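// run 5 | inverse folding | seed 20
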């Protein structure tokens, strides 16, 4: 009770302090941002997402129009605020034994989780866009999201991600201090700084200890893995699909989600999305997922 209030007050104070720090600090570092995370150039928005608005999730008991699919999710509110979407079906119970075992002594590189259910995992990188309406969207849908943050992109407003984290649906992971897309080949000392430095910043700002490293652009080498290990991280998380402005970029010609796929998207806003908002991009992502009959689970319960 009081703890929550204190936390809120603290966040408010930090916000007040930080908003005077200005937003220009990260801009200079973003010359390479347009291609950050290496998922290909965004295409201008084309045709609207096909698919069946509000279609029930096949293979589940979800029944849009009746009971909420996820405990506490307001199905009517979802339909009103996010046209074409329904609540996600409840995620299956997490496995008793994680399909991927991670260890800091030998970090594993993974891009999907071996499983059979129609479940995918959503990961959101970087942090340049800080859309308050996205926090509301997270509260509305109540699905787990994993965010990998780079200090250079969040330091102008740490408080935004604190508010996001406080929703209870967010796992915070490590995406380096300065987002170098050329991690492979950087000296070991620099790679270690990028990872261990971000561990320290995330611990200081949010009280978290990430165990998953998302290499910028998905670029890594043996030194990166060794540095992650030395920094106490247990795995390097890549991805199978990358969300663009409208369309999903698949790595296979089938252009379909598969059980256990990890999806990459980014905190992006109008400046990166040709005028589109983060929320609109996420609506399209959610439509892609729902149209294929999938729901979303927490990757930290599986790795
Ligand atoms: Zn990135």
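// decoded
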């Amino acid at each position: 009770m009081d703890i929550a209030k204190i936390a809120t007050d603290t966040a408010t104070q930090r916000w007040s302090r930080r908003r005077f720090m200005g937003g220009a600090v990260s801009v200079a570092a973003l010359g390479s941002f347009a291609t950050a995370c290496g998922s290909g150039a965004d295409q201008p928005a084309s045709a609207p997402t096909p698919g069946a608005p509000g279609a029930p999730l096949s293979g589940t008991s979800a029944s849009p129009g009746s009971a909420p699919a996820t405990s506490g999710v307001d199905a009517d509110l979802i339909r009103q605020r996010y046209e074409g979407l329904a609540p996600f079906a409840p995620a299956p119970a997490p496995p008793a034994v994680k399909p991927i075992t991670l260890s800091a002594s030998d970090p594993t590189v993974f891009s999907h989780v071996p499983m059979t259910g129609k479940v995918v995992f959503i990961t959101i990188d970087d942090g340049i866009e800080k859309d308050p309406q996205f926090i509301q969207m997270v509260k509305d849908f109540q699905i787990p999201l994993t965010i990998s943050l780079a200090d250079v992109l969040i330091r102008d407003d740490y408080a935004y991600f604190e508010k996001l984290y406080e929703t209870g649906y967010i796992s915070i992971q490590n995406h380096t201090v300065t987002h170098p897309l050329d991690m492979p080949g950087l000296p070991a000392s620099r790679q270690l700084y990028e990872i261990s430095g971000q561990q320290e910043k995330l611990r200081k700002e949010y009280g978290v200890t990430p165990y998953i490293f998302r290499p910028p652009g998905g670029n890594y080498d043996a030194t990166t893995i060794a540095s992650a290990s030395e920094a106490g991280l247990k795995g390097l998380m890549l991805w199978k699909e990358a969300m663009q402005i409208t369309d999903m970029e698949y790595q296979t010609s089938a252009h379909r989600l598969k059980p256990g796929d990890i999806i990459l998207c980014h905190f992006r806003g109008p400046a990166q999305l040709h005028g589109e908002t983060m929320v609109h991009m996420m609506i399209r992502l959610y439509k892609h997922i729902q149209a294929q009959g999938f729901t979303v689970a927490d990757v930290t319960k599986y790795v």
